[in-house]
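Pilot study result, target chain (99 residues):
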Amino acid sequence: MAKRNVGSDFDQFLEEEGLLEEATSVAVKRYIAFQLLEKMTESNLSKAEMARRMETSRSSLDRLLDPDNSSVTLQTLQSAVQALGGRLKIEIDFHKNAA
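Predicted structure:
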């Protein structure tokens, strides 16, 4: 008996279930937190020093690094990236068939 694919891909499944936007948002935030923590570790940078460089509080930095906290401002993200010697780039991709 041949296997039948129910959906074309996982994204389609999530979209059909009304979960795609939330899942994407959570995944992006987790990836951002992971990248920042990884760079801090590479640079032997403590949270206290990172917060100092960002000119913010430790609690603000902890919120940024919390993979489950999706409330992050572009200003905070920009400050973190600059503190680590990077440059923030944001890309928006509109699908051709999106209205």
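One observation from the pilot: The mean pLDDT is 87. A full batch analysis is planned for the follow-on phase.
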